[in-house]
Amino acid sequence: MNLLSPDSEHEQVVFCHDRATGLRSIIAIHSTTLGPSMGGTRFYPFASESDALADVLRLSRAMTYKSAAAGIDFGGGKAVIIGDPRRDKTEPLLRAYAGFVDSLGGRYLTTEDVGTTEDDVVVFSSVTKYVVGLPDGSGDPSEATAWGLFAAMRALARRLWGADTLAGRHVAIQGAGKVGSGTARYLARDGARLTVADIAEDTVQALAAELGASVVPADVIHAVECDIFSPCALGGSLSASTVPELACSAVAGCANNQLATPDAADLLAARGIVYAPDYIVNAGGVINIAHEAGGYEKQAAFEHVWRIGETVQRVLDLAESRKVTTARAADMIAEERFKGAHT
To answer: Of the listed 78, 178, 323, 339, which one is catalytic?
Structure first.
């Protein structure tokens, strides 16, 4: 079933139900202006279908802006499967979901996300060809996403401290998943001091032991005194209640939709905290996937991902020259590309 309100900026929203497998899913296509919409499939135990809808609408819009700002020819899409992947994920359910993806005829390309894995993407591919990030292609996007986030942090170091390294800088990472832990490893090799937090105690303790990092509870990581705070868990971590508690010079993380409300960007600016917009710094995964066209070569893909640092510099320059927040500057860069596609 398609559902669009008269004022929706999304092209299509599809509710997918399969009684036999218990599938409840929503696929949101925000834009296909620059190319087919692309975004991962998130499997998550949302409290309600309305919460799932709000999340998929936000995420799909962010994917449009992410691809546009990164200069790649994808539109924005996203999908959510409602449920606990540890309990509810079955192959028949994944195949049923992939059937809905296939029914869209290529308007939406999917890959892995929170709660789904490379193995799940392989199951999708047994039903539909509209899948990216397979093992024989660009594979798991988390490594490229971490590499891009590291590039963004290097760009911040050049801007704030005039250094081409993060050696001696303190980074507090919220979330020790694949991207958060991958970024932590890049930072440790660069000589950064790390504090990490995650609700999965075993995971964060193992990462801390590996890298010599400090560990704090997940609900206080944002308030740790540091140079860069890096939100790498779920979205909404920057809010009217958390921004006043930040004790950092900059924010750069891989989590999507970090700003709980648009005015959080103004709150950060008012405190003199440099915000590297989420969809700019976490674009490594989609850039990596874009290199599947014509045959994937990791070196070329990762060289492209590293240029995220240049995009961060462009955002900072534009924000300064136009006297706007970095969030607005990032949107301006993406929207400039939309306009170009219509001319």
So the answer is: 78
CB of 149 within 8 A of CB of 228? Answer: no
Contact 332, 317 (CB under 8 A): no
**Residues paired with residue 42 on neighbouring β-strands, in sequence order:** 80
The answer to whether 166 and 187 have CB atoms below 8 angstroms apart is yes
**78 classed as catalytic:** yes
Report pLDDT for 5. Answer: 44
User: What is the separation of C-alpha 171 from the centre of its chain, rounded to a whole number of angstroms?
Assistant: 19
Res 236: pLDDT: 86
Its sign, for the CA torsion 35, 336, 301, 231, is negative
Q: What is the pLDDT of residue 235?
A: 82
Q: What is the CA 97 to chain-centroid distance, rounded?
A: 22
Handedness of CA 113, 115, 119, 120 (dihedral sign): negative
| pTM for the model | 0.89
User: Which domains are seen in the chain, by residue range?
Assistant: 12-58+74-125 (3.40.50.10860), 142-339 (3.40.50.720)
